[in-house]
Amino acid sequence: MTEAGVDAVLDYALRGNQIDFTHTYVPESLRGRGIAEQLVRAGLAWAREQDYQIEASCWYVDKFLKREAQHG
């Protein structure tokens, strides 16, 4: 995602049918706007559409997965 000429990213690694979200980064100038959450939600939705097995090395993505598991 690019806004105001700077990039926010959600890094991932693909291994067969498995995706590992490895890192989320939002530049300081864009923080506090919910951009990381938007990236993660879009990334997880895309991964599910592709039928990937999802893992998260990134603590921020892992937080979303745990929250989803708790709320079914």
TrEMBL record:
| Domain N-acetyltransferase: start-end pairs | 1-72
Instruction: Note the superkingdom of the native organism.
Output: Bacteria
Keywords of the record, alphabetical order, are: Transferase
Source species of the chain: Nitrincola iocasae
Task: Establish whether keyword Nucleotide-binding is in the entry.
Answer: no
| Molecular function GO labels | transferase activity
The answer to whether the entry has keyword Transferase is: yes
This chain belongs to the protein called N-acetyltransferase
Q: Which Pfam families match?
A: Acetyltransf_CG
